[in-house]
Every structure is written in C-alpha cells, then in structure tokens.
Amino acid sequence: MARVFKHEHVIELAKWSDIPVINGLSDYNHPCQAMADILTIYEHFGQFKGLKVTFIGDGNNVATSLIHICSKLGLDFTIASPKGYDLSPVVIASAQEFARNSGSKFAFLKDPIEAAKNADIIYTDTWTSMGQETESKKREFIFLPYQVNSELLSMQNLQRL
Prior knowledge:
Structural class: alpha/beta
Number of strands: 6
Helix content: 40-55%
Largest sheet: 4 strands, parallel
Shape: globular
Low-confidence stretches: none
Mean pLDDT: 91
Order of helices and strands: EHEHEHEHEHEHH
Strand order of the largest sheet: 5-4-3-6
C-alpha cells in the first residue's frame, strides 16, 4: 500500500511491481477511505439504491473517490463546493460513465444547505489537504460556509450513524 502526494507515483509503483499496489491515498483519490465509508453506509442502511450522499466541501481526492464509488454502486451523489474548488471534469466524466450502468444521479451545487436537502448521508473532509498547508488561511475563509455543523444538520431528518 502506498500513500503518496502525486497519483503518478502510484501508477509508477504498479508499473514496476510484481505484486498488486494499493493506492492508500494520492492527490487524485482516496479509494480505501471510500471503500470503508461505503461499507459503513451499507451496514447502516442495508442497501445502496435510493440513497442520496451529499458531500460538502472541496472537490478533492476524497470527493473523487466518493463520487466514483457512489456512481458504481447506484447511490445518488450531490456535492456543494465553493467556486474554483469543484470536482474536475475528468472525474465527473468517469462518474457519469459508471452511472450508465448503476443509474446514479448527480448534482453539483454551490449552496451547502440546498445540497443537504433530502440527503441520507452528509459527508465532508478537511478544508486543507496534505500539501496545501500554505493555503490554510485562504481556505478557512472560503470554506467557512461549507461546514457540516449543528445548523446544517438541524435542517435535515437524518438518522445518526
């Protein structure tokens, strides 16, 4: 298992390795976290179909893995991100391709309150990922409205995991 900054390093490791290489985390995605989280969702709800997952925050590696696993397994996925912090078009295109088989639907919004409406699962991540420490102050300002807090949750009828 490799946790790396650049996704290309995982690709390079796999290219030269005689054994499988597991991506523990890269700047592109965080697949092991998504797998663990989707198992928790399944343990709680007992199904995937008909569930809406809402991600509040940066369209980063965690959001990438979450939209990919949701789109493969048939969960609907909504993300609310500030302008300039959206999921990449490449990530969205691959999720749309996966969704052709599963029937997942997507919504890409700016308003976290709107995104959280009718969500079964609300998910977030840190505002500043590894390697972005120099942006911490800027991100604190930008992401302040993108908190999963008691105010956001009070507007929902969520079951607590």
